[in-house]
Amino acid sequence: MSTLPSDCDRALAAGAAPARAQAALHPNLVLCTSILASSLAFIDGSVVNVGLAAIKRDLDGGGADLSWVVNGYLLPLSSLLLLGGALGDHYGRKRVLLGGILVFALASLFCALAPTLGLLVAGRLLQGLGAAMLLPNSLAILSATFTGKQRGRAVGIWAAAGAAAGAVGPLLGGWLIDTMGWRAVFYINLPIAALAIFMGWRFVQVSTCDKPVALDPLGAVSASLGLACITWGLAEASAEKQLTMWGAIALVAGIAILLAFLWIERRAGERAMLPLKLFGSSAFSGLNLMTFLLYGALGALMLLLPFVLIQSLGYSAKQAGAALLPFPIVLAIASPLMGRVAASHGSRLPLSIGSLIVAGGFLLALRIGPGSYAATVLPAMLTIALGMACVAAPLTTAVLSSVDGRHTGIASGFNSAVARGGGLIATALLGVMLTAQGRALLAPFHVAMAVCAASAAAAAVCAFVWVRSSNTPPK
Predict the structure, then answer these.
(1) What is the pTM for the complete model shown?
(2) Is residue 18 assigned to a domain?
């Protein structure tokens, strides 16, 4: 999956549980530390997508196995994001942030040295664990360091830096793959992580919470296992083009474990990783269904497009990375404007109309094939980017206003995890496409784009039906 638009994670900072402001000696350096740490989590997904074709050639990966190069990262990030934030509240945000960066760096080195696809997937799982630790805590530290208008300015700078990283990441990754090979995209994380660790150790000063936060390890483990079983079962069925016995067993086990997760969370009450009473809000439930449908479709596009461009249309890795460039540029320019529109007029129409525009962009993607980039790929990318710009910032506003003030941090963190979960499931379903070669890729790619268009249209219906017309939080 590509780097998620930064507005999807902006709510993690904006909706963090209130924390005592800590007077930092070097607040701008704390902001730089947060940007460096977050960039590790954001960039890696998009860069690896561009490198899938090279990894397939080098390590001789099948479709189901190759999809786990992406899903191995998304699985722990989706299921452990909330626990990562709770660990920071419990043990100290600085400590968990530095630990997450270190885990991510060591996992990146492991990935770079991996001699087999299985070991590469293991390294990606560790990367996802590190990202789940560092991402929520880097934003919580940002929220605790700045107050008032300065906090809004800091989050805005962080979001702009995330958009810039999203723009440069695929292009840089493609250049590295073409010149030095796919392993270089993991080596590049090491100096960034080293600088982030030094700056975090030297400049971040955030106190621990006065009241230790209860952890929910059983909930986190059951959520991870359930998602892993379902993801593996879907990937197996996709690669084999039928539901095999082992795939069916995995799916049934995954559903059973996730039902057990719901039972565990219900018994845990307020100590739960995900308090189930949040779903008493129809707006919250509808927004998360919309997020799953829309970001699942986006994840499918960002996985498949560079793969198809390289494998079927003869693009180099650098050219495929450059082909994605219009998306983050349009998103960075247009998202702040739509955020102001949503703040003034409510989120319902921007979310509904934006999702419909995204659906139209996916229909334009049916034209992708032989022909110039400007005539085939560019119109689809610009249209999808414009639609997502209508959605990204208003989604943050809508999520924060769908629950009471005590649960905004959990609600926004869960929505960010759902966005990644959508990409996780989409990637699992696309294993069959990762086995195809040459022009044979185009027909299933067009089928996938048609399904994505339907998914985005369904997301528009969810937004129109369940999102309130105003942004007033419930009492």
Answers:
(1) 0.85
(2) yes
